[in-house]
Amino acid sequence: QSWTFLNGDHWEEDSTAKVLCDGSNVDCCEEVSVSSTGAAADKYPELMGTYIQSFTRGGEPIYMKDDMYLFYLNDVPHHYEGWTIAGSLSELGDISLTMKTPCPDDEDGVWEYVD
Q1: How far from 67 is each of 5, 64, 111, CA to CA, in Å?
Q2: 53 DSSP β-pair partners
Q3: Measured between alpha carbons, how far is 28 from 31 in angstroms, rounded to an integer?
Q4: Which helix (H) or strand (E) is 42 found in, with range?
Q5: What is the pLDDT along the chain (115 residues), one digit of tens a residue?
Q6: How many other C-beta atoms are found inside a 10 Å radius of the C-beta of residue 33?
Q7: 3-class SS at 114?
Q8: Please, are residues 89 and 57 in contact by the beta-carbon 8 Å criterion?
Q9: Handedness of CA 28, 29, 34, 36 (dihedral sign)
Q10: For 39, phi and psi rounded to 5 degrees?
Q11: Nearby residues of 82 by Cβ (< 8 Å), 6 or more positions away
């Protein structure tokens, strides 16, 4: 699992960025930890930390940390479907996982962020 970010005119990888489960035996974790020791943490330190599953919408878990949401977004007009971290449940955030996975901590996913 790694994140990529747009640096000028090319994509770079931050292999230190992670979303980890709390280890519980449920469909999706009750807590996930968003972390990076690379560029994602430098650019968005406020988005790093522990997100707690607060409620569900359409069967998908929604996690919160302070006033930020980690949630599954299906934005048909913009052709986006995947996990994202944003301040609103209706917008694509600065960090996202463009992959259909049941939970945000899927190890096969590649998280991206806006640089």
Answers
A1: 23, 7, 21
A2: 63
A3: 9
A4: helix 39-43
A5: 556 665 667 667 777 776 666 554 457 788 999 988 888 889 899 999 999 999 988 878 999 999 999 999 988 887 888 899 999 999 988 888 877 788 888 766 677 778 7
A6: 16
A7: coil
A8: yes
A9: negative
A10: -65, -30
A11: 72, 73, 96, 97, 98, 99, 100, 101
How confident is the model at residue 23, as a pLDDT?
Answer: 52
pTM of the model: 0.76
Residue 25 is predicted with a pLDDT of 44
Residue (of 16, 20, 38) closest to 115 by Cα position: 38
Give residue 49's identity as a one-letter amino acid code.
G
Using DSSP's 3-state secondary structure scheme, residue 43 falls into: helix
Please give the single-letter amino acid code of residue 92.
L
Provide the 3-class DSSP secondary structure of residue 100. Answer: coil
Show Cβ contacts of residue 61 under 8 Å, excluding neighbours closer than 6 positions.
Answer: 28, 53, 55, 71, 72, 103
Spatial separation of the C-alpha atoms in residues 38 and 49, rounded to whole Å: 14
Residues counted in the chain? 115
